[in-house]
User: Fold these one by one.
Assistant:
Number 1:
Amino acid sequence: MVTLTVEAKAWEWLDAVPDPELPSVTITDLGIVREIREDGDGLVVALTPTYSGCPATAVIEADVTRALHDHGIERVRIERRLAPAWTTDWITARGRERLHEHGIAPPGPTLADGPLVGAIVRCPRCASSNTSEISRFGSTPCKALYRCEACREPFDYVKPH
């Protein structure tokens, strides 16, 4: 029988913590959790916010601390890592699938110097590529508002970066 380490268990516990702005995905789905390590009698969790001014950062840090406290980890220290900067490339395949299932178009691939220009944004409802941007900013700063020209439904698109 394999016994999981405290770090491995913590990854599992944090895999149940939803992102406050995109609750259909977890913070591990988004790749925000960068590292978990033991430190004496507690854990250090390194988090990289989706961007340095993200208003959900404090909520995520509190949710991580609460989740670990709920599993008996008394000492939790959060490290906020801004480098390397978070990229949508860190979103897991499961995270992309969950975004799509909840009507949010997942981001396309990025290059080292930014998003691919002219990337196709597919409608998460009907899969049409005949879509247009309505607003550069959607329900949160990390999303844009799009409309499908085929089914006429509006939808959020997670902007690649």
Number 2:
Amino acid sequence: MEINIKIEQINHHHIEALQQIGRQTFSETFAESNSAENMAKYLEEAYSFEKLNEEINNPNSFFYFAMLDEKVIGYLKLNLGGSQTELKDNNAIEIERIYVMKEFHGKKVGQLLFDKAIAIAKKQHVAYVWLGVWEENKRALQFYAKNGFVEFDQHVFVLGDEAQTDIMMKLALK
């Protein structure tokens, strides 16, 4: 059965929907591997209305929803230049987040969001795309490796009061 997913750019009018899908998908992805306290603290901070409003109004950050009919089932966040979390390279785009509701895993929604990110990167004429993936998120690591990303470094990601290691990966476009 073919499902018809649309990828749509969003703006500040969509903050509540972004907050909902962000909290839900982050929880589905990481709750069983982290303490309830650390998850609650992170979700409250990272997905607060104020923080999302600031991010969505940043001219160098872009958010896209994956939509099935009128339902948001996943999302993508991209960062350009100084908005990147680490490298701040004007010749790169960071994929900060690709998250899909668990019930839609394996249905190519993540691939559609990924393909959108690569299309935007090519349109921006950047040399490469990079991202960070938690070293314990084997599913995501395999997904990015399958799509041509290679490991090049690592950095610390703080979840609540726990420091975790993210594997940094990049894909050369030129």
Number 3:
Amino acid sequence: MIKIGITGNIGSGKSIVEDILIKKGFKTLCADRISHDAFENNEIIKKQIYEIFKTNDRHEIGNIIFKDKKKKRELEDILHPVIKKIIEAEFKNSNEDKIFVFVPLLFEAKYEDIFDKIILVSANEKLRLQRIIKRNNYEKEHALNRIKSQMSEDKKIDKCDFILKNEGSFQDLEKNLEKILGKI
């Protein structure tokens, strides 16, 4: 099995790439969904999070962590080991030839060692800002806080095997993805 990590900063288009791969019949996992599931359904994690934030409301916690790096790190210290364990269990139990795992914070969480190949979905910051303001109805300042909370694309590029540009049309994205899939 080839284990492919797909990363990219907020607003880069990871969800669209995942939709394309699913339509092509590939197995995908999403670290954000794993995180949300753990956040909502794991009582131990809920308790740990509540002890730090005095709430379990994801929206309130989001507002805190994108302004407070220390609190963000505390949340990540709870969630990242759980997410990694679930991903590794999926690898162990899967019969797929290839499995694509979407991990926005792949390098920040230090997950690179569990993947055979890493793809970065890339888009310039101005475009990503426009996308997340439109998609999430965020104020510009909140959207920028989210962008700035992640490692820059420039630092990620050298760590990736493939760069998937997503600054053009859907057809361009699909075509570029096909080229990468042909090389894996």
Number 4:
Amino acid sequence: MTGMARVAWAAVIALTLVAELAVSPRVMASGLPVDEVAQGVFVHRGVHEDASNANLGDIANIGFIVGGKAVAVIDPGGSPRVGGLLRETVRSFTDKPIRYLILTHAHPYHVFGASAFAADKPRIFGHAKLPSAIARRSAYYISTFTGILGVEAKALKPPAVTDTVSDRLELDLGGRTLVLRAHPTAHTDHDLTVFDTQTQTLWASDLLFRERIPVVDGSIKGWLRVGEHLSTISAQRVVPGHGPVSADWPEALADQRRYLEILVRDVRAVLKANGTLESAVATVGEEERPHWLLFDDYNKRNVTASFVELEWE
């Protein structure tokens, strides 16, 4: 990133923080810092980095919702240590039982903190395809994260899902209803969202990336379709999987939609011209470089996944 680009990003981040603080002041509790983005809805923002020993896999937005009788944790974080800190944060706000642990998808920085909540014996919810995704991927993820986290990785183990969602399911936290919805293949083939009906907060997780470049691990066409469906939800705010919470809904989808549509358009153009995967990887999406953090780390991967999907249209 050039010096001018760094200055531009610093300005964007500063303005974002000002806007966020005006709506949802950060609460400094024991454990992890969280923003109470709506009454009883607490979000901890992960850093815009790849997982490392230094950040302990704390790179995704995680948090919890407090009801009249119970607490639901939404994604326990990227390591047992992060999960433990999140649990400590919950306990600093309430002694209500943590009855539900909701996993939005299988990516390790969203789920590897689950073991920290074992003593609470929560029901663990996920998409109907989540158990098979965990079974397929956990050995690789644990092996990879062992190299990343070092000694912290000794406690890594895949979460055991107890309840699955194939379409729609409601959870009662005591005077507060959460609607869990399973989606067709998009970011992954097992994406789950959470909607808090009391505050009209949509927890989109990785179906929405902000500031940090989206990662295609399912279907780019499917993701665009699911994005259109999400845009019809009457939400007051959205919690993305990465980046700041937004009260500008559904406009918060615009940057991600633009990026994905550009990939589809440009990959199709390469295919129509009988171009190669190599030529697509070298050129597609480059106009989006100024708009996303970690662009060089993930754009080529996204182009490759899109090329493989679209060449069989």
